[in-house]
Amino acid sequence: MKKLLALLCVAAMIFALAACGSSEPAATQAPAEEAAEAPAEEAPAEEAQSYTIGICQLVQHPALDQATEGFKQALVDALGDSVTFNEQNASGDTPTCSVICSQFVSDEVDLILANATASIQAAASATNEIPILGTSITDYGTALGVEDWTGSSGTNISGTSDLAPLDGQAAMLQELFPDAQNVGILYCSGEPNSKYQADTISPILEEMGYTVTEYTFADSNDVANVTANACSECDVIYIPTDNTAASCTEAINNVALVEGVPIVAGEEGLCKGCGVASLSISYYDLGYETGKMALEILTEGADISTMEIRYAPQTTKMYNASICETLGVTVPEDYVAVSVE
Q1: Residues of 193-227 as b/e, b for ≥16 C-beta within 10 angstroms?
Q2: 0.90 cut: is pTM over it?
Q3: Which of 39, 130, 164, 221 minimizes the number of CB atoms within 10 Å of its CB?
């Protein structure tokens, strides 16, 4: 009897312990199992950086248009839809450049492209914080009024230069017109970079034995009269990279072609409109190089204040077949015909 009672007591104790051990885990283990079965939550994807770029172009003509297109393409190639452009054209009006650039500053764009000298001057006046890249600018020291230019600005400005080798252009003129005596340099007095080119190439031509005279026009209104004056006194005319002249090639050509005076041009767009030949850069390539600089600034953190001005990678000897034929000018075989549309 005592053994039976002892066995019953032991059984009761075992049952009690089992009940205590099983009641609590049933409530606490289930969430752990559910957590193991539930998929881990994914971290939210990082949103791609987007950029807005303001483009201020002084005037519409082929050279500047190509530079803008090259610039945009370089950025689209790298950033796709992550970049948007606010593209504005000042239609040749310098004060409008200031209005455009001031609006870019108000809009807090990430970078400004200043296409041509008046554009970069306006952008420089509008902001000293937003990065400014110039293109189609001959000499930055002249454009920005910096006498001791060293290659980089030390400020929020850099870019590319459209300066073709002026000694090479002088050599081209001599190659095509060795018997000429009087050379006229035709450009807009309101464009400091044109003055810079005239001052640089004049002594080179004089050393070659030419008599050199400068002919300047204030704007498009007097370009035909000044061209006529130059044609009456000169055997050959040289036109540097000049935005006003480039937008007035038809008026210039209407005078020079009738007078039978050939024009050696500073760039392809001028050559298409009124020149016989040009030692020219590719403005599209120049713009593309500027776009690569923009990428370095926006995506790689490059310091624009230390970025040196860059130049077009190559030059090409070009000729205008139609004008050459009309004037009886024969060019060497290494010249490439410009596409006149």
Answers
A1: bbbbbbebbbebbeeeebebebbbbeeeeebbebb
A2: no
A3: 39
